[in-house]
Amino acid sequence: MVDFSRRKFFTRKPIADAAVRLPWLLNPEQFTDLCTQCGECVKACETQIIVKGDGGFPRVDFAIDECTFCYQCAEACPESLFKEESDTPWQAKADINQQCLAKQNVECRACNDMCESMAIQFSYGVGRVALPTLDHEKCNGCGACVAVCPTSSINVSNVTV
């Protein structure tokens, strides 16, 4: 008798397109075609948030820390995958879901304390705790708010422009 559920083990796992790759990518759509998976960007990251992701390709893990936009990943890469440092790093933005403690009427402002760009603000209301509002225009996608969130309610993902 053949166990068909085990066949998935040998199939190639698709690469997650929603994963935030690296800042300043010249062509994010062709990243998996051009990246050699050498790991130099992983070694160069000053906050150690670049990790090997699906298929061994580097991706950013904001659960570890934030991106300081130091450009060391781009400088360490032996391939021509990156734009100039003066360009916009990426189109990644934060989102706050309904698991947020403040949205459950529990006082918490950890994300606001970490947001240097002041993209996360809290608005007061009568009979409830202050609720977070996120200004996507101010958000630079650094991910500083992600690791400090006690309920993992904040996600940073790429947005299409």
Structural overview:
The chain is of the alpha+beta class. It folds into two domains: 19-89, Alpha-Beta Plaits; 92-158, Alpha-Beta Plaits, CATH 3.30.70.20. It has five helices and six strands, in the order H-H-E-E-H-E-H-E-E-H-E. It has helices at 31-34, 40-44, 72-76, 110-114, 144-148, and strands at residues 50-52, 58-60, 92-96, 120-125, 128-134, 154-158. It has a two-stranded antiparallel ribbon. The protein has a two-stranded antiparallel sheet with strand order 3-6. A two-stranded antiparallel sheet has the order 4-5. It is elongated and about 55 Å long.
Arithmetic mean pLDDT: 88
- Helix content range of the residues, please? 10-25%
Numbering strands along the chain, what is their spatial order in the largest sheet? 1-2
The tally of domains stands at 2
Structural class assignment: alpha+beta
User: The biggest beta sheet, please?
Assistant: 2 strands, antiparallel
The count of helical stretches stands at: 5
Tell me what the CATH architecture of the largest domain is.
2-Layer Sandwich
State the CATH topology of the largest domain: Alpha-Beta Plaits
N-to-C SSE string, H for helix and E for strand: HHEEHEHEEHE
Count of DSSP strands: 6
Gyration radius (Cα, Å) is 18 Å
Unreliably modeled segments: 2-16
Assign the CATH class of the largest domain: Alpha Beta
Which geometry do the CA atoms define?
Answer: elongated
Distance between the termini: 51 Å
The percentage of residues in β strands lies in: 15-25%
Quaternary arrangement of the chains shown?
A: single chain
